[in-house]
Amino acid sequence: MIPDRPDTRRGFLRRLADPGRRRPEPSGPPAAPLQLHIGSTCLMHQRIECRLCAEACDTRAVRVVPALGGIMQLRLDLSACTGCGDCLAGCPVGAATLAPLSSIDTPLHRDPRDR
Fold first, then answer.
1. 29-48: per-residue pLDDT in tens?
2. ∠ at Cα 56 (63, 53), nearest 5°?
3. Ramachandran bin of 24, using left for φ above 0, alpha for ψ from -120 to 50, beta for the remaining angles
4. CA-CA-CA-CA dihedral for 56, 41, 74, 102, to nearest 10
5. Which residues contact 86 (CB under 8 A, 6 or more apart)?
6. I need a surface site. Which of 27, 38, 74, 104 has the fewest CB within 10 A?
7. Number of compact structural domains in the chain
8. Are the beta carbons of 54 and 92 closer than 8 angstroms?
9. Dihedrals phi, psi of 44, to nearest 5 degrees
């Protein structure tokens, strides 16, 4: 079960806390798939632990995982990413961006299970 879906307790409580939080319905032709890209200004790249983008991600597409040496790193699960942009608002330094899938060479720490 994925947290924050409307049918979960967490999703229900989030809707109660912010009833105006609704994503607009897409109109027009479907856009190119978007993918999260984390730039070099990310605090995690500077060895400063920041979990704000991961905490903002309702689908858990962005996660913080331990790495060698006790340093935390971001892990992206592209199959869970909906391109909603919630993680962008959570980034205090603006390092997170969404770009069309074809314009990004290599995402940051792609989840090995995402193939």
1. 555 667 778 888 988 888 88
2. 55
3. beta
4. 90
5. 56, 57, 58
6. 27
7. 1
8. no
9. -65, -30
Residue 88 CB partners (closer than 8 Å, separation 6+): 53, 96, 97, 98
CA distance 34 to 18: 26
Give the whole-angstrom CA distance, residue 102 versus residue 69. 33
Domain annotation covers residue 56: yes
**pLDDT tens digit string along 55-111?**
998 999 888 888 887 778 888 887 888 888 888 888 899 998 888 766 555 445 555
**Which residues have CB under 8 Å from 29's CB, separation 6+?**
none
Structural domain boundaries enclosing 42: 32-115
Q: What are phi and psi of 90, to 5 degrees?
A: -80, -20
- 68 part of a folded domain: yes
